[in-house]
Amino acid sequence: MKMAAAGAAGVSLAGCGLFGGKGKKNLPKAYKVDGSARMALSWEPYELQLRHTFTVSSYSRSTTPDVQVRIDYDGFTGYGEASMPPYLGHTVESVCESLSRIDLAKFSDPFQIEDILAYIDSLGGIAPPAKAAVDIALHDLYGKLLAQPLWRIWGLNPAKTPHTTFTIGIDTPEVVREKTKEAAGKFSILKVKVGQSPEKDHAMIEAVRSVTDVPLAVDANQGWADKFDALGEIYWLQDHGVVMVEQPMPKNRIQDTAWLRERVDLPIFADESVQGVKDIARLRGAFDGINIKLMKCGGLAEARKMIAVARSYGMKVMLGCMTETSCAVTAAAQISPGVDFADLDGNLLISNDRFRGVTLDRNGRLILPDGPGLGLELV
Ligand code: MG
User: Who contacts 292 (Cβ-Cβ below 8 Å, separation ≥6)?
Assistant: First the structure.
């Protein structure tokens, strides 16, 4: 404003000192794309071994199918990952088929991520986890070429990462108590899977409460089909130290969820009801926030747009994950500063992690690695 006023008054800017003098340091050399190198995409199936059999309201399992991805470019390597929990309907075969249709050799400039992702969308029918794997590897490569971690490139403050929840799956009260004891003292918030009958849900919560009094998030995974039952459950949960409820009702029951939201104080988050940025507008008024997962939405580029759109509607944001290695979990953690909740424990649930990336402090707060790109180390 002052400069505009000065200009308008005909005062010369030359003598004001703003543009005089040169920076004392030479600019560091950034990677220069000269058009001669090409990206090479490769992948391999990798079955994730779960530490404990994992049960939610609709199924249980002890492994998760996964595909590890890399992009090589002029001596640099970007890592990515597709994780396919069975309930999403994608398989190793469908993801590998999608990856085989993506020809990154068409592109000579790995910085043009928006163009590359638009090309992937234009192919039609690409499985979202396959797109997420390529998006994650592209962003890892991008940060490595710029020699900076993604959080820094995006101007995010690593001191503002949230505490992650640690998930306690559905099980008998004895096992729930054991798992809670293992987690107690390491996390300042736990997430409990509910959505069965009130009796079973109450037994789960009471088993957790017999061990710890930390705040609880609950995830019903669409398990409450009746809105009156859901209302009664949320009142009960509120009295037992629960601080948020995820996906209480089936994913398309938006109006019933809005009815519910008008009657409860706890924030209600959408998970199964939201996949990408296009779904957020119809959730306004029914949900307080959205759960963003890279495997659902197709990667970091879409996830960042989702955060911006959700914030513009005054909605809260949580970041979730599947059971994944530290590759995809660390990718999600890169955008975690400032979100309201993080549920980024997928790497802690497996026994064959290939990477070291995001870590946790003593209370379960996410600590971002300082290395370029995702900041991963192979283990
Ligand atoms: Mg969920």
Answer: 274, 303, 306, 307, 317, 318, 319, 320, 332
Nearest-CA neighbor of 321 among 353, 297, 288? 297
Other beta carbons within 10 Å of 226 = 11
Six token digits for residue 364: 């379960």
Using CA atoms, how far residue 74 sits from 2, 52, 111, 115, 249, in Å, is 47, 41, 13, 20, 49
Rounded distance from Cα 348 to ligand 1 centre (Å): 17
Tokens of 43: 């992948």
Cα–Cα distance for residue pair 216/193, rounded to 1 Å = 10
Per the listing, tokens 């020809």 go with 103
Rounded CA separation 68/80 (Å): 6
Tokens 């992702």 found at: 117
Q: Give the residue carrying structure tokens 């590897």.
A: 137
- Host H or E run for residue 73: strand 66-73
**How many angstroms does the Cα of residue 31 sit away from the middle of ligand 1?**
40
How far, in Å, from the CA of 194 to the mean position of ligand 1?
A: 10
Q: Which residues of 62-96 are buried (b: 16+ CB within 10 A; e: fewer)?
A: eebbbbbbbbbbeebbbbbbbbbbeebebbbebbb
Whether 307 has a pLDDT exceeding 60, the answer reads yes
CA 25 to chain centre: 37
In angstroms, the CA 114 to CA 121 distance is 11
Q: What is the 3-state secondary structure (H, E, C) of 103-135?
A: CHHHCCCCCCHHHHHHHHHHHCCCCHHHHHHHH
Tell me the DSSP string of 133-164: HHHHHHHHHHHHHHTSBHHHHTT--GGGPPBB
Ligand 1 centre from 138 Cα, in Å?
Answer: 27
pLDDT at 336 over 90: yes
pLDDT: which is higher, 9 or 185: 185
**CA-CA distance, 226 to 256, in Å (whole number)?**
9
Q: Does the pLDDT at position 5 exceed 70?
A: no
Label residue 363 by pLDDT band (50, 70, 90).
very high
The pLDDT of residue 282: 97
- Asked whether the predicted pLDDT for residue 213 surpasses 70, the reply is yes
